[in-house]
């Protein structure tokens, strides 16, 4: 929440993750957060502008619609708000853009208020490799893929589960997530898009799920294998975490303004599965 005399501002951001060491600030490394915060501080003439983001993307991952918020002094926002978007465009590097900026509604929290995040992983099984113009956002898979096998396996993973088998564990963090959508469709000749949508994700979850489904799609594993891995509940060395460059954060959906605060409160609860 904004404090006394401050205004919470929402920023919708897009970036090509190729040249970044991920979203989160890291000493001595180029990050999306670092670039946007530096641009805000420069344009607004403030010492610091700390961003809170909806989802921290890894090095090499792209975003078409990332969301972040920043709390600014009210007088700073009033003075610069209408001009901020165009001024940021003038100082940000070409591989990151702020697409929109505006005063956030009461109760908005970029990290805790979303209903879901939607990622798309793009892969090509073209015999000659990926189109050179798509090499930064499409993975080349050397074996032919069967999209029907991948979708059959994906359907068995939908719902709320403990995804420990597909996540890198972090101290004190739960691996229980609700997977809302996992499906594949064709985007072109030899080009496939895997949509992964959930209320939230744990570390490496999307890329591990994609890796498991690609193993099904090219025939190395049966359609029931990813479900067996999920049920086992432990990391399986046979699950290959695919490279980050094929992954794009496409959408983050928030509830109606009146439900933002309640959603943030619900998200912060400690998750457990029924009977656990």
TrEMBL record:
SUPFAM superfamilies: Pseudouridine synthase. Residues 153-255 form the Pseudouridine synthase I TruA alpha/beta domain. Pfam families: PseudoU_synth_1. Substrate binds at residue 119. One of its GO terms (molecular function) is tRNA pseudouridine(38-40) synthase activity. It catalyses: uridine(38/39/40) in tRNA = pseudouridine(38/39/40) in tRNA. The active site is at residue 58. Its EC number is 5.4.99.12. The keyword Endoplasmic reticulum does not apply. InterPro entries: PsdUridine_synth_cat_dom_sf, PsdUridine_synth_TruA, PsdUridine_synth_TruA_a/b_dom, PsdUridine_synth_TruA_C, TruA/RsuA/RluB/E/F_N. Keywords: Isomerase, tRNA processing. Homodimer. Formation of pseudouridine at positions 38, 39 and 40 in the anticodon stem and loop of transfer RNAs. Belongs to the tRNA pseudouridine synthase TruA family. This is tRNA pseudouridine synthase A. It comes from Nocardiopsis sediminis. The lineage of its organism: Bacteria, Bacillati, Actinomycetota, Actinomycetes, Streptosporangiales. The gene is truA.
